[in-house]
Each structure stands twice: as C-alpha cells, then as structure tokens.
Amino acid sequence: MTRPQHVAVIGAGVIGSSIAAALEASGVEVTVIASDATGTGPVSRASLAWVNARAKTPEYYRQFNADARARWTELALPWFHATGARADGEDFGPDGWVDTAAAIAANLASVSHVRVETVTDTSALREEFDAVVVAAGAGTAALAPGSPRLSTTTGAEGYLVRFAASDAPFDRIVSIKGLQLRPDGEGRVAAQSLTIENRLREEGVTATAENVWPALRAEILAATGWAPPADTAVTINRAHRTHPVDGLPVIGWVGGVYAVVAHSGVTLAPLLADLAARDLLGDEDPRLAPFRP
C-alpha cells in the first residue's frame, strides 16, 4: 500500500482523536469527521475513564492494557491523573483516570481539519481520501461491515454520576463490589454502580438523577462509611457502551476501511493510536495480530 497522504478519521472520541493526532505527528494530513465538533459525545461523558489492566482476559489482552497504561504514564499528559486505585482491597499503583474532554480537545487541536458531518456510508469518503479510519465507537459496526467480529459494536447502556462533595474521603479510584468512585476535579466526584445499572436494565428503566442518586448515595454510605451530601448538585450522563461481539478490540482493514474499536477505549487510546498510525503507514506491530477483524 502506498503511504497515505490524506486520511479521514470518522469519530472524534478518545480513540478517533488520538489516532488522528498520531497520524498528524507522523506527517499525514488528517480530516476528522464527526457529528459533534468537540468530540466529547455521550460515551466519553458517561465513561469512568479508569486506566487499568484489572480483570482482563485472555492474558495477551491484559498485557495489551498494561502496555497502554504504561504509555499513559510515559506520556505524563496533564489530563491523565495518576492517582492509583484500590479495587476490592487490592492496590493498583499505576492506575489513574483521564479527563476525556481535555484529552479530546488537545488531540483535535493538533489535526489539520475537523469536519462536522454525519456519515452513514463510507463509499464517497473512500474516493476522496487515501484511507478512511472508522473509530466511531458503538457506531463502528454500521460503517465497517464484513467481519463477524463487527456484527455489533453496541453494548448495554451505562451511566456516570457526577456530584459536588468537598469532603470526599479519597483521592484515588475506589472500586468495591461493582461500586466505582473517583475524584473528578476539585470538589467533585464521579461514580457508578454496576449493581444499580443491572437493576435498572432488568426493570427496563432509563437511568436518571432522580432514580439513581438515592440508591447510589445509600450504596456509597454502606460501602465506604461516608455519606455524600444529600442536597448536592448531581448530573448524570448515559450512553450505550462500545462493545465488540467478543469483547476484544478490533483493529484493521475490513470493507475498504480501517476499523478501530475497543471497549476499554480510554485505557487503550494512546497505544492504539501509535500502533494504528504505524500500521497505516506500513509498520505492523505484532501486538495487533490477535485483534484483526
């Protein structure tokens, strides 16, 4: 394949914007195409953004996440907060969390062009550009047909609650039996409960601040002994999480486009960006082999 000179990247989330920035840094002209010029869509806002390699199988996938976590540490970007984590009594010192809005904004600021457009078919773009990268999260399957591993990329709906609390008794990520908490900047906390998510899903109820916050506040108190203020300002973001069929990343050519999609998108973003950019320019890394479409 001839080295591409001008590449379109569909999707301006954490993965798409990271790949676009990596390609630009390699001397490729990039046009990011997304329905929202900021790239901070529902999935980014609803992500706990915990960078980790915990409880990931098989081993090559766990190692891939560990390599990505090490890449975050190496880059030491201001939007990666290397707080460490404590999960079910075990400490994970290299972990941290990402301010996804800041990360995406910085990535997009480094690319040549950002085009606001809703893409439903890639055929015209494949004529216009030397290569088309599809990193559209849950929407990737519709734009990159042709692989059983991409028959769907839409997972269950999840949520993230953010609330003000100046007295939160933790300065790192805390995970206790499916309850996950982390700092979210000065005087704020981000939280989610997989138990509450599963209950709402079984009941067919959409998560709102009104039906999540009382139960979440009670769960936080029971798990940590700390009661968040009852009258605090609460916001909730919801989104269907990105989830390929087998739960593993998909990275490579399919249907005439280069697809990149992963459930652990925030953790993997900087490593995926480097490897995908190299791959597109003819330098294949063997770590990609298990994740081909």
**What is the count of β-strands?**
16
Topology order in helix (H) and strand (E) letters: EHEHEHEEEEHEHEHEEEEHHEEEH
Largest β sheet strand count, sense and barrel closure? 7 strands, mixed
Note the total helix count: 9
Overall pLDDT confidence: 95
CATH topology description of the largest domain: FAD/NAD(P)-binding domain
Can you give a write-up of this model?
It is an enzyme of class 1 (oxidoreductase). It holds the Pfam family DAO. This is FAD-dependent oxidoreductase. Keywords: Oxidoreductase. The chain has 293 residues and is an alpha/beta fold. It folds into 2 domains: 197 residues, FAD/NAD(P)-binding domain (3-Layer(bba) Sandwich), CATH 3.50.50; 85 residues, Alpha-Beta Plaits (2-Layer Sandwich), CATH 3.30.70. The strands form 3 sheets. The protein has a 7-stranded mixed β-sheet. Strands 8-2-1-9-16-15 form a 6-stranded mixed β-sheet, covered by helices on one side. Strands 3-7-4 form a 3-stranded antiparallel β-sheet. It is globular.
